[in-house]
Design a protein that fits this description.
seven-stranded mixed β-sheet; mainly beta; four-stranded antiparallel β-sheet
Length: 123
């Protein structure tokens, strides 16, 4: 079975930093797209950042460009999201997604596997 386990969320003040981790089992992250999504209460799930080709390429939502960095460690089969200069509007549940089905990287419907999420709260 494929499992994605997120960790690293928490509560921080605006301007602070957090690093999220997504550890995959039953699924090899190298050579595929791995994506972070977030969902705030009452809002749709949105793509935040994606990494592909073993880290050769990345995508970012405009709202996080220059503040967030996605990376992966193939040896640990883990994807990271370094979040700096956090803003209150970054408050959301953050999810790791895998099993991309093609199409737009930021479309949540295009992924087969999801983690349980980790909460990020910025005040």
């Amino acid at each position: 079975d494929v499992q994605l386990v997120e960790s690293g969320g928490g509560s921080v003040q605006a301007g602070g930093s957090l690093r999220l981790s997504c550890a995959a089992s039953g699924y090899t992250i190298s050579g595929t797209i791995m994506t972070w999504f977030r969902q705030a209460p009452g809002k749709e799930r949105e793509g935040v950042a994606a990494i592909y080709r073993g880290g050769e390429g990345t995508y970012y939502a405009d709202s996080v460009k220059g503040r967030f960095t996605i990376a992966q460690d193939n040896a640990k089969n883990t994807v990271y999201l370094q979040m700096n200069s956090l803003k209150p509007e970054d408050t959301a549940m953050y999810y790791c997604a895998a099993g991309w089905l093609g199409g737009r990287w930021s479309a949540s419907s295009r992924y087969s596997y999801w983690g349980q999420g980790t909460q990020v709260t910025v005040s």
